[in-house]
Amino acid sequence: MAEIIIAGILRAGAYSPNHIGNDTAIFNATADELRKRGCQVNIYSEEQFNRDGVTEDIIMNMCREPESVAKLQALEDEGRLVINSGYGIENCTRERMTRILLAAGIPYPESLIVNTNENVKPLIEKAGFKSCWIKRGDYHAMHKEDISFVRHVEEAQEVLQEYFYRGITRAVINAHLTGDMIKFYGIRNFPFFWWFCPSNQEESVYGWGDVDESSHNPLDEHLLKDICNRAANEVNIDIYGGDCIVGEDGSLQIIDFNDWPSFAPCRNEAAPHIAKAVLNLIKEHK
User: Fold this and answer.
1) pTM of the model
2) What is the rounded distance in angstroms from the CA atom of residue 1 to the CA atom of residue 241?
3) Which domain covers residue 127, as residue numbers?
4) SS3 (DSSP) at 285
5) Nearest to residue 281, comparing CAs of 36, 39, 53?
6) What is the pLDDT of residues 88-116, one digit of tens each?
């Protein structure tokens, strides 16, 4: 029997928009790397976890369902090692993430946090947003409509009304930033870090915008990695990814920060590093 026994919990399909296969692939690749290192990894679906729970003391997971996250937090409180932390996963929901990153001084767009049934026109006009992004604030994005680009205040009000009718009570409004969008993947306090500049909208879950790879703004990779690591510490996430806008002057602003993304463009490179990081966390925990 393996000395280290790990429960591996996959992400429910509803929380992998456009990335069900990729999310499963990176998780299974990481589990295989851990098995190569002598670990026993027992794989469960998020549904199985919610129904039956797990007995293992080490839990590696991609969970996002509210019920799952609450169960993970309870297991952490009991003393089990949970990667990523259930508290960190909750911190990656839009409103909490926005509040945490802004309070910590992490470069992040100017933002408003609103109720979806309120009149936001005066707030947006006072903030001076010419165009903006409206994102559901209560939880992780599940549908394309959970993130909406709007060009004027009337459109913003209409989108918020649609959110309200869908049962979404809170929303975050981010000022639109001009510049190049890049995607990044990393592990907290660990050397591995990968970024790339998508050449088309298909590289992003919801299509943040076209970027021409042949001409983009200067990027300080070391600064980006430092900002991302700071963000990971603030939200308490070990395995992370997200999106950033690089301004013409090289300025960086995080626009999205996610718990355990797909690592799709660098899966083969990332999996051994994630496994090593998991083993380091197990060692520290013991």
Assistant:
1) 0.89
2) 34
3) 110-175
4) helix
5) 39
6) 999 999 999 999 999 999 999 999 999 99
